[in-house]
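Example record used in the benchmark description.
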Amino acid sequence: MNETQTALLSMYKDIKEVLERNGIEFYCHFGTALGAVRHGGFIPWDDDVDLAVWERDLPDVNRALAGELDPSEYYYHIPSADNHPHVISLAKGKEGLRNRDAPFIDIFPISDYPSGRIRQTIADAMIWGDNISIYALDRIRSPAIHRRLKWTHEAFYRLAHMAAGGKCGLTTVYSTEFKGYIFRKEDYGRPVMHAFEDTEIPLPQGWDRMLEHMFGDYMTPPPEGQRKGAGGFPCGAWIDFEAGSGKKRFSASRL
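Model output (structure tokens):
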């Protein structure tokens, strides 16, 4: 493991302890799940950890992690203009947030996705609108302008959920690659523990089918020229940290 991965593993253990203590179900997802299965830990070139929780549990997740993680070690970022929180290391101080190079862990909500074609078309447009809004807001450096425009994320987010309707059998994770993350609810099922470095992580019950859907022949590493980390940084983390708006807990009950 490199320095970043060592920090991420310690962060994961702290998060895992809090979520388990509060009886909150969660999964490791995306590249983290792939690393566990293919490498027994981190993908050697990976630089983050991806967790997923049921969207209905977000209020409990936020209360637990915001209240029980050490605030001298972590900034629990509940963004004012994004749909998933993050745990960000403060080992580099505020500069790590300002320079966008602090180790962080994503916590993705697993959201309902409609099965009907018409509703899917509407939901797709709203999710894309949400992603574009999040991308644009992340590039606004003025707190005043950011406050005035963050409603765009909230509007697209609500409309996407309205399009999904109720009693959905499908799920997705709102991101630019959401079309590749559409799974049945039963694919997640009860978490299955899997070895990861010197600890264990919970994988979705249907991890094999899900990894094949996302990565194809997932046990074969990509060519060397395509081996790179996830990159990026939590949208709006610095502006929210400075404004203190992260204290306003994002909650699925706002839908």
